Amino acid sequence: AQKITQTQPGMFVQEKEAVTLDCTYDTSDPSYGLFWYKQPSSGEMIFLIYQGSYDQQNATEGRYSLNFQKARKSANLVISASQLGDSAMYFCAMSRGIFGANSKLTFGKGITLSVRP
Amino acid sequence: DGGITQSPKYLFRKEGQNVTLSCEQNLNHDAMYWYRQDPGQGLRLIYYSQIVNDFQKGDIAEGYSVSREKKESFPLTVTSAQKNPTAFYLCASSLGRSGTGSQPQHFGDGTRLSIL
Questions:
Q1: In terms of C-beta density within 10 A (0-12 exposed, 13-18 middle, 19 or more buried), how is residue A31 classed?
Q2: What is the predicted pLDDT for the residue at B100?
Q3: What are the distances in angstroms from CA B22 to CA A86, B41, B45, B84, B99?
Q4: Strands (E), chain B
Q5: Which residue from A42, A50, A100 is facing B98, i.e. has the nearest CB?
Q6: What are the tens digits of pLDDT across the range B10-61?
Q7: Beta carbons within 8 Å of B84's beta carbon, 6+ residues apart
């Protein structure tokens, strides 16, 4: 069975600073995908970044980067130059396999990030 | 603009009543999903469908039913058998079998269901 663990309590960061949100995972599958989603207070889920288990390079998307440490089974999200609009819940999720037919996701419980002006 | 539309935004259910949540997508995605989110919690999968006329139970399917008669539509019925239906319900879609590689799911804006 797959499991995602997000144990940080509410996180606070000063505007324009970087912040790391932790995610560890557990799976016996050799191929899997790791995703981060952002959920503002309005409720919609916004896809941020993806890392495949066979990807050699860490994924980056604008101010978001994923620090993927396969041996430690961690997939931490790094947000650089935080903005007030980054205040939200952040969810780490995992898919079984990396192909379309296996895109069912398992989510962690999320981390609340608050950006201070 | 392509996207996923969920309706209604807010829904109230009386005891013993079935209610249906609508989910429509115009992204031409094969796969669709229903999740439940309780306060302060992550998303839990209720049902998913990889193709028209086929769907599978997720982790918490009891008290729910779905249909997938059209590619664009995946309605969720919360039946009277679901004793604790108050939650935020999110519908999502992805390329599914027609895609390879990264398969991010795209989400609707959700429906908040409450008991009267």
A1: middle
A2: 56
A3: 30, 23, 16, 20, 25
A4: 4-7, 10-13, 19-25, 31-37, 43-51, 54-57, 64-66, 76-78, 87-94, 106-107, 111-115
A5: A100
A6: 999 888 899 999 999 999 999 999 999 998 888 999 999 988 999 999 999 9
A7: none
Give the A:B interface size as CB pairs under 8 Å: 78
For residue A23, pLDDT over 60 is answered with: yes
A103 vs B45: CB contact, 8 Å cut-off?
Answer: no
Provide the 10 A C-beta neighbour count for residue A100: 21
The H or E element spanning position A74 is: strand A74-79
What count of Cα atoms within 13 Å lies in the side-chain half-sphere of residue B77? 10
Contact B31 A45 (CB under 8 A): no
Q: How far is CA A41 from each of CA A38, B33, B97, B110, rounded to the nearest angstrom? A: 10, 22, 32, 12
**Identity of residue B65:** S
Largest distance between two CA atoms of chain B: 44
Q: List the single residue in A with minimal CA-CA distance to B95.
A: A100
DSSP state of A46: E
B92 contacts chain A (CB < 8 A):
yes
Measured CB to CB, residues of chain A less than 8 Å from chain B are 4, 33, 35, 37, 42-47, 50, 52, 91, 93, 95, 98-101, 103-110
How is residue A6 written in tokens? 């997000």
Whether B102 and A34 have beta carbons less than 8 Å apart is answered as no
* Nearest chain A CA: its distance from B79 CA (Å): 24
